[in-house]
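Researcher: First entry.
Model:
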Amino acid sequence: MQLLSEEQFESWRLDARVLEKDRYGEKVLLLTDGTMLKLFRRKSWFSKTLFFPPAERFAANAAALRKLDVPCPQVISTYKLLNPYRSVVHYQPLAGETLRSLLKTDPSLDQQHLFAQLASFITSLHDKGVYFRSLHLGNIVLTPDGQLGLIDISDLRCLGKSLNRNMRKRNYRHLLRYDSDFSLAIPAARDLLREHH
């Protein structure tokens, strides 16, 4: 990770659009060139993030997913910002719309087809050893060429072998607990995913 100077950060931030923030500050910035900065705070001074910062984990996961042919963001660089401390990843976002956004905005969406594609995609992730505890419809993107891909990938793990049955079930349980997502979906959508889990 490179050191990100306050001057460089402020120059990026000047005309950036804040996409996500919390009470600790900005979390995701869309820069004027279309790239993004994601900032991670350290939640405690002594934690595993001290040795493997989330920005580096994001970059490592992006590289692992690309080897597995899973569409995901393209990392440009990782940084550390000292005041306040943040680990920062600079990346080219994955083009497309999240499934959550599509369900909210596209009344012509063929949900039956989309959820069948989603079930196949998740099975393929599990077969490739990708374990994503934060999997939800806001983290899955439909790309312009009709593929599904992943974003917000800092807390997934690529295990190098097919997931066992229990891990698959836990992954699906997590996905299905987002009632606000499935309230927008046809009733058969949840059933289709339950069949796979």
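Researcher: Second entry.
Model:
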Amino acid sequence: MVPFLNALLLGFLAAQLCAFLNTPLPWMIGPLFTTAIFRMAGVDLRAPVAVRESGQWVIGTALGLYFTPVVLKVLASYLGFILAGVVFALTLGTFCGWLLHKLSGVDRTTTFFAMAVGGASEMATQSERHGARVDRVAAAHSLRIMMVVAIIPFCFKFANLHGQDVFVPGAKVVDTMGLIVLIGATSVFALFLKRMRWPNAWVIGPLAVTIGLTASEVNLSALPEWMVHFGQLFIGISLGTRFSPEFLHTAPRYLASVALTSSVAMAIAALFGIGLSMASGIHPATAVLATAPGGIAEMSLTAKTLQLGVPIVTAFHVTRMAALVLTIGPIFRFTQRLIRA
């Protein structure tokens, strides 16, 4: 309990400092970097699984409130572009896996799963089944997410990229009884999906339930702002405490190669996002966030903070995540057959 309370206190103080300095995503970026630095310095900081899941619940529920009937009609018109984004993400991950192999000299299986644009836990599980080095896969995903979370929001803020999002949540007022019902319904479905071994169950479950309610114009309650802040704080310390003193001792050439490959991935994704924007009419910054090699929570939170098409960014990332989980095994086997041919 003490290591968690220490992580929570450090994260909270870091969030307050970042908010004072007006940095982007202060309630996530501050805790993430602070706990990561202290962890790599040898301080015992921990974030229990329940903490990460609580943060994911908040984000999933908050995002689901945007999916009104009007928003769903808009998203339906973008379906072809969303599918193009999925194909792009799968192709990008495969290419970056090859590039990481060439740069680092690490085996192809490990680099393939290390660069797949998916969640760290899901890709670590998949990589273990196929004989990859799980520790290096996890290290690569931790470093990639940290780079994406640090670079993209700061670039957007430096360039003064923000919008006036036409999409607003269906529920705009906090209602105590409605909030209790919302918490209960979303948590029950999240627990069900977790039992069914769904990836990101505590994001997808609340997101699905809240989308269903909002699309049906059942607006139980908005989420209090403090709850959204603590959700980001919990995600930040959960990401930061993944780092450890051993992380710094991971093969320097490998980590440098991951950093370079992740930078290439972000650059290619940004170019694709700009092209997608030109073809679809989506705001360029929204399209870049929608196609960035980051996680659902991180990119959607950036969109929410900068008022840049939250439902569009969320739809792109959720669809990509689902497609990746379903197809990563067949894609890996297909690429292996191509190599041997």
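Model: Note on the second entry: The two ends are 53 Å apart (CA to CA).
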